[in-house]
Specification:
Number of helices: 4
Strand content: 35-45%
Helix content: 25-40%
Strand order of the largest sheet: 3-12-15-14-13-16
CATH topology of the largest domain: conserved putative lor/sdh protein from methanococcus maripaludis s2 fold
Radius of gyration: 45 Å
């Protein structure tokens, strides 16, 4: 019993010594932290002009875009291009099987040759009947031939004459059909009418196509681009041709301030939207790229800070503010809407833009800071409460 009491007292003494040592260590650490100096940059808090914007999704569109369709029916034999390929004027895009067309050309050529041979034979008989008819006409006038002989000569002459006319008409018809068939031979090869990029490919080898079926879409090279977007019809009176808007294309990393070139004055009753076209002056684009158009509605003043200045502690946002003596003091702030800074000003930060990286991110400070105060903006990993900032 006595040993148990002794062990209990010994354990309690050890625990008290441990607590005393820990408290003295913490006090010593705190004194070192408070007394140290840290080199860091300082940022003066300012109120910036922030826009109130409405933004709408859209896409990049080539100013010159053509769709090539089939001119004749047949099976597609070859499609040597893919979407996104660069092609030159005259390059083969689609090859349609020409077996049927060539068979028709050969048949019409044979028919024309036979018709011309027939015309030659009938023309010889026609010339003879013409001479015979003229001779009997003269003899009949001289009463040296009977009327029956004159009528037979006349009938044969007129019949052969009409036959010659019919054969010539048939040859003309066959020649027209032959020329049409020869023209169709040029339709089997669909070639690029200009330099550009393949924007769409709607056919594969082995597909049977009819005249008028779209096969290939081609965007002209060097023709420039438009940005096309649908806006809410409530803004129709706020947008007009010549207004400057900001177009953001995340995939290309571009933020461009460009003019509006066209505003559709009739809205769509199904979606309550109208179409706007903005002129993109950048050549480093491709048709179909997703983007957004930002329309400035108004502006407001707000305190804004780089996101890197804000320190998170247990889910609470704060900054290190310098007091009059140059000492860093931790202060809790309420952060608001995030922004990204562009060459033309600030734009709302959207998730897909943040994912691409490289953007200078800012946050709005709703409370906790006032313009003119100074906050620590660098070397924050070494800064703590009570540090002196050099």
């Amino acid at each position: 019993m006595r040993d148990s009491r002794f062990n209990l007292k010994w354990t309690a003494c050890c625990f008290c010594l441990f607590l005393l040592f820990s408290c003295s260590s913490e006090r010593k650490t705190e004194e070192v932290t408070i007394g140290q100096s840290v080199k860091a940059d300082v940022l003066e808090v300012r109120a910036e002009e922030l826009p109130k914007v409405r933004y709408f999704p859209g896409r990049v569109r080539s100013k010159v875009s053509i769709t090539l369709a089939a001119k004749m029916p047949g099976y597609v034999r070859e499609v040597p291009v893919q979407i996104g390929d660069m092609v030159r004027k005259g390059d083969l895009l689609v090859l349609v099987d020409d077996t049927d067309v060539r068979a028709r050309v050969n048949a019409l050529f044979s028919a024309e040759r036979a018709a011309r041979a027939e015309l030659e034979a009938v023309s010889a008989r026609y010339e003879y009947s013409k001479i015979n008819f003229n001779r009997f006409s003269r003899l009949y006038k001289e009463e040296s031939a009977t009327k029956d002989e004159f009528d037979r000569a006349r009938t044969e002459y007129l019949a052969l004459k009409n036959q010659v006319v019919a054969i010539k008409s048939n040859i003309k018809r066959i020649s027209a059909q032959l020329q049409e068939a020869k023209n169709q031979l040029s339709y089997v090869k669909i070639k690029a009418p200009m330099d550009g990029w393949i924007a769409a490919r709607n056919v594969d080898p082995g597909t049977y196509v009819n005249p008028g079926v779209p096969l290939i879409s081609l965007d002209g090279k060097g023709s420039g681009f438009w940005f096309e977007a649908d806006m809410d019809e409530s803004l129709q009176s706020a947008v007009k041709a010549g207004d400057m808007v900001t177009v953001s294309v995340p995939a290309a990393g571009l933020d461009l301030e460009v003019p509006v070139v066209h505003v559709q004055r009739s809205s769509r009753p199904q979606t309550h939207t109208f179409t706007v076209l903005a002129d993109l002056d950048s050549a480093d684009l491709k048709s179909g790229l997703f983007g957004r158009i930002f329309l400035k509605v108004s502006t407001r003043k707000a305190v804004i800070l780089p996101k890197g200045v804000v320190v998170e502690r247990g889910g609470i946002s704060g900054v290190y503010v310098l007091d009059e003596s140059g000492t860093a003091r931790w202060r809790i702030i309420k952060a608001g809407k995030p922004w990204r800074k562009t060459q033309k000003g600030f734009l709302p930060l959207l998730p897909d833009v943040a994912a691409q990286g490289g953007a200078e991110i800012y946050v709005t400070v709703l409370s906790g800071l006032s313009p003119g105060e100074k906050v620590v903006s660098s070397n924050l990993s070494r800064v703590s409460e009570g540090c002196r900032i050099e």
